[in-house]
Amino acid sequence: MSDNLSLKAFVVLLKASKSIEELIKKDISSHGMKSSDFAVIEAVYSKGKQTIRQISEAVLINTGSITYVIDKLENNGLVERINCKEDRRVVYIQITDKGKELMDEIFPKHQQVIESLFEGISAEEKEIVINVLKKVGKKGETIR
């Protein structure tokens, strides 16, 4: 019986993930951005300047692809590269004033879309979802 529940939980998780991903892509594209662009600019908007590696790990985009995304964002004046004074090999990515203005406008709207996904779900239920998904994710890392 638990095997059937595990399979059912897996299928429900995948379907929910796909549904949420489609909603988020639609929301982000309504602001004239691609998901990868939004993920990168949101990372530096929320956390401040970061290295390309830090951003890559945070947004789950490989470093080869992320350079292309950062180049586009930089060409649009939304982020800028800053060389590290202590280590010439390190380059930081920082949001520009133009990028901050854009995110100040669109991020609250994006956050509201996410909030609407969880309407009617109690704080306790959200905590349960968070904890269960963390356990599943950690288990997945050990099985590899």
Automatic annotation (TrEMBL):
This protein's name: MarR family transcriptional regulator
Lineage: Bacteria, Bacillati, Bacillota, Bacilli, Bacillales
GO MF, one example: DNA-binding transcription factor activity
Species: Oceanobacillus chungangensis
Domain of life: Bacteria
InterPro entries: HTH_MarR-typ, Tscrpt_reg_MarR-type_CS, WH-like_DNA-bd_sf, WH_DNA-bd_sf
Pfam families named among the record's database cross-references: MarR
UniProt keywords, alphabetically: DNA-binding, Transcription, Transcription regulation
Record domain HTH marR-type: where: 6-138
